[in-house]
Amino acid sequence: MQGNIVPNKCYKFVKDFQPYMTALKTCKSFHENATLLVIESAFENSEYSQDSDANFNSYWIGLNCINDPYKYTWLDGSPVNYTDWEIGNPNNIYNWYCAYLNTYMSNWWTWDCTVGQMYACQYYLY
Length: 126
Hints:
Number of helices: 2
Low-confidence stretches: none
Number of domains: 1
Number of strands: 7
Structural class: alpha+beta
Order of helices and strands: EHEHEEEEE
Helix content: 10-25%
C-alpha cells in the first residue's frame, strides 16, 4: 500500500477486475480496516487520478447508493461533503448504484455494481 497523499492513509490501485462487493472483500484481505477508496477533496481526487497507472482509468471507489438509491454514502461512514460527478451522473436509471473514479477525466461515474472493474483500496494507519 502507498500513502503519500493524505497523512496516515494508505491506498492501493488494484489491477484486477472484480464486482464491487468482491473488490471490497479483497481490500479487507489486505488489512482488516481497509475499504474501497474514500475521496474527500478536489486535491485528493486530482492526486489519486495522477498517481494511478496511466494505462488503466476506471477504479471502483467507496461511494455507492446500494442501501438507498437516492442517497450516496461512503463505505467507511464518512460524510459526503465533496463529489466530482461527470455530467449526467450519478445515473441510477439502470440500477447503476456504485461509483468509480475515471482517472483519465479525473471525475466520477456510476456503473452496475455486479460488473467487474479495477478498484482502489485504503486504510488508515491509526
